[in-house]
Specification:
Elements (H helix, E strand, L loop, with lengths): L55 H11 L3 H9 L5 H13 L9 H12 L4 H13 L7 H13 L3 H13 L7 H13 L3 H17 L1
Helix pairs in contact: 1-2, 2-3, 3-4, 4-5, 5-6, 6-7, 7-8, 8-9
């Protein structure tokens, strides 16, 4: 079992919106989180430059995650209620079902993403936006989805940029804006988000076909 918390859950395990319409060409339908995923969380949660030096218990929790000692990690993250990366980590654990109940709890995941997002933590803002977009753990609300994704994207979060671009491209609950979608895809692609590069290729093909 591998553990990795470096990326938000919109990065590898995603799911398309149920009512998302397809373009004429095949486009990736895997930008959003699955409601049930296999236990696989990151080896480390990145520190954001704007955040203070992480407390020692946080590093202890990261070490526990690396060693697969999830109960210790869970308790330690929970002991840091004012620490945004720890709250985000709890959200990831609840999303993955790595909890005392051994079951995913998307409502609690969204709760912890919200706590971290409100402190300005970009990975949590991305996950919260995706939660609202997919209606996972919270009622589906595209306005809130776009709001939180914009906040994360504004901080340079590549996955948020890509997800925001997809929403704007498809016009899911918002007015379609292909030009802005392209800009977000381009920024995400520069940050190494492969799906964004695929979306740009499809956009280019569509524009060539449409003349």
């Amino acid at each position: 079992m591998s553990f990795d918390m470096t990326e938000s859950f919109g990065s590898k395990r995603r799911l398309g919106f149920g009512g998302l319409r397809k373009k004429r060409m095949s486009i990736p339908d895997n930008l959003f989180p699955e409601t049930a995923v296999q236990p696989s969380i990151p080896k480390a949660i990145p520190n954001t430059p704007s955040l203070p030096t992480p407390p020692k218990p946080y590093n202890t929790a990261l070490h526990a995650v690396t060693n697969g000692n999830i109960p210790v990690a869970f308790r330690t993250f929970a002991s840091l209620p004012q620490h945004a990366p720890s709250q985000y980590a709890l959200g990831v654990l609840y999303t993955q079902g790595l909890t005392p109940d051994h079951e995913p709890n998307h409502t609690l995941a969204a709760h912890y993403y919200t706590l971290a997002a409100e402190q300005g933590y970009a990975p949590a803002q991305c996950n919260l936006g995706v939660s609202y977009a997919a209606g996972v753990g919270v009622p589906r609300d595209m306005s809130k989805a776009v709001e939180w994704l914009r906040r994360a994207a504004g901080k340079g979060h590549g996955e948020a940029m890509c997800n925001l671009g997809r929403i704007l491209w498809e016009g899911v609950g918002v007015r379609p804006d292909v030009a802005e979608a392209r800009r977000w895809f381009e920024r995400a692609a520069v940050r190494g988000v492969e799906v964004a590069r695929v979306c740009l290729q499809v956009l280019d093909e569509e524009e060539r076909r449409d003349g």
